[in-house]
């Protein structure tokens, strides 16, 4: 009942405490309360970057009550009802105190908690006074404990009634320093490094990894705040703080120390995922794996669609506990969502397309979020540009890594770094003999290539040859797969699709990656090839590189649905031309494609299957149609697409059904008029 939480499945400064149920036995309630008090007392030795005095004052009060609770006995049958009420109210308040102490000591939330010092002080005051209120109904005279303990309880009661929790003066001073630094960012002025260092030292942020953890926390808070359309009151402050810490991370720390911690984190994550089963991820309402887990004020988590349906049915209680909800606010459980996605990938479980597998919507990042965030990023972009030009090899690698992180999910950051001219410098780093530098540079270029102006800058700087060479000879697998993905984004421009195709090594290198690469590499290569096929002149190049047998092999050998779907997409595009149809039919692929259509669970995969069969019929002629007509299950699959598929899939299915019907009718009537022109008929192996 009092299992200690890590706080990560709950938004900071929310307190989803659950009132003990009325039927709980007094002994069970007391044991749980003692456990809670012990948990709270362990925070005495924790590091508090802010709110330390007030937090420890609250811990001392709980410790004093723990002495009383451990001496209390509730085995007798005539326990006063007021005692149970008092213990229940203490249990509720202790839960809230523990949540608040978790927040005060939470790694990654130190700067945010500094800005909330006044609120934390007020919350602690309210919680301690709630302890006093709970003790008011305690029948102390009727309880068999020592007189010393009774005096201690009386002391706690008196102190709780007049409890004063003021914000720590040191917290106020450092918060004013932060506000002054943000003001300098707004004015486009670099803050004094010594002043920035004082803030970081006070918060205990002494390493790059700690600063990066703060940035990640703020980013997740911004995401949650942005989803809350009705409130969004904290967006500007969160954005400013994130800009400040991003600036600090790049400028104040020379060493990136996250590699060891990442390995430990990955090991812990793998151990955790290894002990989980699908039951751990199922919604208590739908009993299906959650796609968008959200948490109620009771602390219980449900799939968003299911709990909203529950509310729309007129219910205002928690489905699991039956407790009436004071608020129907839904908190996005980002940690659980990520765990479900990681588990799904590791176990080959497909989550529906409308779930979290969609790319994160980053359109909100077109703007910086605040003037301070904008100023910080512009100053940082100039610093990075200078380091890429004039820094040592180690410094260039470090800032390339920073660019990689800054541009991963921020359109504004991409714009700033493109504008200051980072792309030519990053392209030069692709020639580095250091594998880490190479990987960071190409990953940064991949993110920047998503910006509208960057593609022309890459091409005009002679970057295509560098990137193609990286696909072939990158020192690390990750660098090669990033290079393939970069080609995909550059190929979104018709003129550049042609230029890439004209490089004699580009398409063969991508096809080699489909054959020999990791699953991620195969996917990146497939989408790059698909993009290049939008230029008709690249069609024969893909065929000449031997893509067809590799793609058909993937259809049978891969257990990854996304690779099968991407392979079908490329094959469907190749089949639109006669030489592509000939190559596909030459390898006896017709039966295989029909089997995939019967078994495919992906809507996109099913659509590409139908597109591929339609193209094979049109270009392959009567021989292909004759074989398709004999399939007993094909018509059923096609008719289901008419009602359940997308509009595009329905049109393709309708066209294929019409061809099959016309062939069947002509064959039944003995007509010799071909359904399709005879000169388009291809022998089927």
UniProtKB/TrEMBL annotation:
Pathway terms, separated by semicolons: Protein modification; protein ubiquitination
Residue span(s) of domain U-box: 276-350
GO molecular function annotation: ubiquitin protein ligase activity
Keyword Hydrolase: no
Cited InterPro entries: ARM-like, ARM-type_fold, ARM_PUB, Armadillo, PUB12-19-like_N, RING-Ubox_PUB, Ubox_domain, Znf_RING/FYVE/PHD
GO biological process, one term: regulation of seed germination
A family per Pfam: ARM_PUB
Enzyme Commission number(s) from the entry: 2.3.2.27
ARM repeats: 421-463, 546-589
Reactions this protein catalyses: S-ubiquitinyl-[E2 ubiquitin-conjugating enzyme]-L-cysteine + [acceptor protein]-L-lysine = [E2 ubiquitin-conjugating enzyme]-L-cysteine + N(6)-ubiquitinyl-[acceptor protein]-L-lysine
Keywords assigned by UniProt, alphabetized: Repeat, Transferase, Ubl conjugation pathway
SUPFAM superfamilies linked: ARM repeat, RING/U-box
Descriptive protein name: RING-type E3 ubiquitin transferase
Organism of provenance: Citrus x changshan-huyou
């Amino acid at each position: 009942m009092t299992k200690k939480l890590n706080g990560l499945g709950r938004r900071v400064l929310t307190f989803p405490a659950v009132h003990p149920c009325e039927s709980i036995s007094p002994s069970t309630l007391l044991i749980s309360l003692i456990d809670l008090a012990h948990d709270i007392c362990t925070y005495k030795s924790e590091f508090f970057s802010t709110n330390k005095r007030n937090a420890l004052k609250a811990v001392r009060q709980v410790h004093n009550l723990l002495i009383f609770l451990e001496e209390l006995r509730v085995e007798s049958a005539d326990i006063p009802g007021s005692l149970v009420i008092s213990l229940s109210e203490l249990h509720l308040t202790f839960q809230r105190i523990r949540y608040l102490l978790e927040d005060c000591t939470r790694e990654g939330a130190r700067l945010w908690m500094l800005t909330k010092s006044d609120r934390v002080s007020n919350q602690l005051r309210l919680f301690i006074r709630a302890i006093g209120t709970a003790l008011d109904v305690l029948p102390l005279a009727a309880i068999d404990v020592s007189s010393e303990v009774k005096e201690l309880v009386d002391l706690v009661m008196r102190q709780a009634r007049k409890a004063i929790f003021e914000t720590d003066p040191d917290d106020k001073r450092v918060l004013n320093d932060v506000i002054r630094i943000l003001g300098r960012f707004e004015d486009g002025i670099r803050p004094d490094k010594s002043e920035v260092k004082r803030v970081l030292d006070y918060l205990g942020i002494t390493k790059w990894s700690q600063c990066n953890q703060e940035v990640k926390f703020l980013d997740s808070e911004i995401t949650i705040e942005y989803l809350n359309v009705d409130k969004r009151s904290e967006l500007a402050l969160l954005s400013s703080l994130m800009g400040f810490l991003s600036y600090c991370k790049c400028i104040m720390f020379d060493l990136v120390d996250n590699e060891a911690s990442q390995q430990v984190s990955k090991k812990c994550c793998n151990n955790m995922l290894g002990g989980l089963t699908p039951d751990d991820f199922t919604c208590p309402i739908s009993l299906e794996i959650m796609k968008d887990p959200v948490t109620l004020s009771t602390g219980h988590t449900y799939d968003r669609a299911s709990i909203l349906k529950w509310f729309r049915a007129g219910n205002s209680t928690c489905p699991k506990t039956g407790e009436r909800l004071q608020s129907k606010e839904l908190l996005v459980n980002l940690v659980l969502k990520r765990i479900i996605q990681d588990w799904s990938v590791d176990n080959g479980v497909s989550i529906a397309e409308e779930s979290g597998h969609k790319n994160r919507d980053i359109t909100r990042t077109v703007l910086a979020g605040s003037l301070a965030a904008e100023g910080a990023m512009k100053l940082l972009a100039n610093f990075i540009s200078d380091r890429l030009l004039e820094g040592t090899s180690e410094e260039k690698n470090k800032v390339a890594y920073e660019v990689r992180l800054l541009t991963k999910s921020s359109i504004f950051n991409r714009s700033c770094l493109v504008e200051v001219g980072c792309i030519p410098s990053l392209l030069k780093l692709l020639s580095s003999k250091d594998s880490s530098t190479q990987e960071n540079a190409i990953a940064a270029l991949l993110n920047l290539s998503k910006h509208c102006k960057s593609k022309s800058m890459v091409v005009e700087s002679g970057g295509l040859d560098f990137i193609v060479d990286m696909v072939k000879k990158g020192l690390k697998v990750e660098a090669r797969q990033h290079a393939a993905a970069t080609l995909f984004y550059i190929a979104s421009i018709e003129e550049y699709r042609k230029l890439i195709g004209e490089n004699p090594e580009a398409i063969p290198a991508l096809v080699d990656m489909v054959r020999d690469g990791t699953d991620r590499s195969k996917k990146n290569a497939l989408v790059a090839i698909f993009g290049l096929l939008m230029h008709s002149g690249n069609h024969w190049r893909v065929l000449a590189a031997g893509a067809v047998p590799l793609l058909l092999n993937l259809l049978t050998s891969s257990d990854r649905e996304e690779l099968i779907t991407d392979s079908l997409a490329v094959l469907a595009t190749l089949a639109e031309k006669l030489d592509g149809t000939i190559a596909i039919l030459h390898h006896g692929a017709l039966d295989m494609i029909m089997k995939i259509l019967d078994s495919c669970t992906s809507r996109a995969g099913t659509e590409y299957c139908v597109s591929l069969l339609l193209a094979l019929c049109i270009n392959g002629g009567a021989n292909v149609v004759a074989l398709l007509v004999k399939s007993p299950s094909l018509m059923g699959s096609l008719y289901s697409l008419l009602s359940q598929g997308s509009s595009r899939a329905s049109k393709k299915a309708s066209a294929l059904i019409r061809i099959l019907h016309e062939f069947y009718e002509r064959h039944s009537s003995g007509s010799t008029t071909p359904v399709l022109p005879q000169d388009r008929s291809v022998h089927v192996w």
